C-alpha cells in the first residue's frame, strides 16, 4: 500500500511533520522562510532515509508570498495527489502578547495575511484534508478592525467542510502526552466531495491525559495524569551556565513512560544540550527564585538589589518552571532570553537548554536542531509539539 502524502507549509523545523512521519506519512514538500529551520528539516528527512536528491527538491527555503516559490511548489508536486496539507502561518500578529506590545495592535503587520498564501496552495492542490494551526489569539484578532477568524473560515469553506466550533477546535497539547500547557487553534477541513465530517476527525483525536485544570475540578475522566517538567527533563546531565556540548553520549538505565518515547531503541546520543552563559547577578536571581519557588515580587522584598525591573509590571518576566506541573507554553521569545524558563533545580542556576525546551515540546532526543543556538531556541518555540501532531495524524489516517 502506498503511503499517505502530505505537504507542510510554514514548516519551521518540522514539528508538525515529525508527528506525521511517526504515523507513516510521506512528505512531498516543506516550505519555510528561515534557512536554519530548513536545514533542520533536511537533517530530519535524512534520519527518515529520504534520498539527498529528494530532500533537495522537497525542502523549499523561501517566501510563500512570492510567485517563484509557488512555481517551485507546483514543480515538485506536479500531478501527485496530496492527502493532507498541514501548516501554521506565523502568528505573532495574532498573539495577545504581540498585540499588546504594538501601538497599532499589529493592524499593519503583513503576517496577518500570510494565511492567504496557505489558501492559494490549498485551492490549487486540493488535498483531501487540511490542518491549519495557530495561536488561540486568532479567535479574537482584529487586524483591520474586523475579526479575522470568521474571514479565514469563510474563505476555507468554499471547497472544504470546516468545523468552527470554538470548544472543538481549541486543543491543549497536555491532553496528548506533551508535558506542556499549550492551547492552539487547530482547524481541520475536509474536501466537500468526500463523505467525511470534520467533527468526526476531532472526535478521533484521542485525549490520553488529563490537565491540571481537570484535576482541580476532579474531572479526570479515566485519563492518565498529565506529564510534568520533572518527567520530561530530570534525567538530563546537570549543567552550570556556559557548560554543555552540541552532541554527547547519554545513556539512562531507568526510563519513565515519557522517556521511553523520547529515547526509543536504546539511543545513546543527546543533541543541543548546551546552557547559556549568565552573569553573577542572574545566577543569584535564578537560584533564589527556583530554590524558594518565588515570583519576582517576592524576590524584591528580600533582595531588592537583584531587581532591575518594576516587579509590579513584570511579575511574570522571570518564571521558574515548576517540576511537578506541566511546563508553561514554550515560546519563540526564548531566543532572546530564557527568563521565562528558569530551571527548577536551583543548584544549576540557569535557564533551559535547547534540549530541555525540546523535551517540553515532545521532540525525541534523536531530533537534531541545526543553526546557531539562538536560532535553535526560535525553532523549538515556534514548533507544533510532535506528539500532538501525531495524534492528529493518527485520527486523519482512520478516515482516509
UniProtKB/TrEMBL annotation:
Cite the active-site annotation.
91
Q: What EC identifiers does the entry list?
A: 2.1.1.37
The organism's superkingdom is given as Bacteria
Keywords associated with the record: Methyltransferase, Restriction system, S-adenosyl-L-methionine, Transferase
Q: Which reaction does it catalyse?
A: a 2'-deoxycytidine in DNA + S-adenosyl-L-methionine = a 5-methyl-2'-deoxycytidine in DNA + S-adenosyl-L-homocysteine + H(+)
Q: Which PROSITE patterns match?
A: C5_MTASE_1, C5_MTASE_2, SAM_MT_C5
Query: MF terms per GO, please?
Result: DNA (cytosine-5-)-methyltransferase activity; DNA binding
Which leading EC class covers this enzyme? transferase
- UniProt cross-references to Pfam families, sorted A to Z: DNA_methylase
GO BP terms in the entry: DNA restriction-modification system; methylation; negative regulation of gene expression via chromosomal CpG island methylation
- InterPro entries recorded: C5-Methyltransferase, C5_DNA_meth_AS, C5_MeTfrase, C5_meth_CS, SAM-dependent_MTases_sf
Q: Which family does it belong to?
A: Belongs to the class I-like SAM-binding methyltransferase superfamily. C5-methyltransferase family.
Kindly provide the name given to this protein in its UniProt entry.
Answer: Cytosine-specific methyltransferase
What species was this sequence derived from?
Olleya aquimaris
* High-level lineage: Bacteria, Pseudomonadati, Bacteroidota, Flavobacteriia, Flavobacteriales
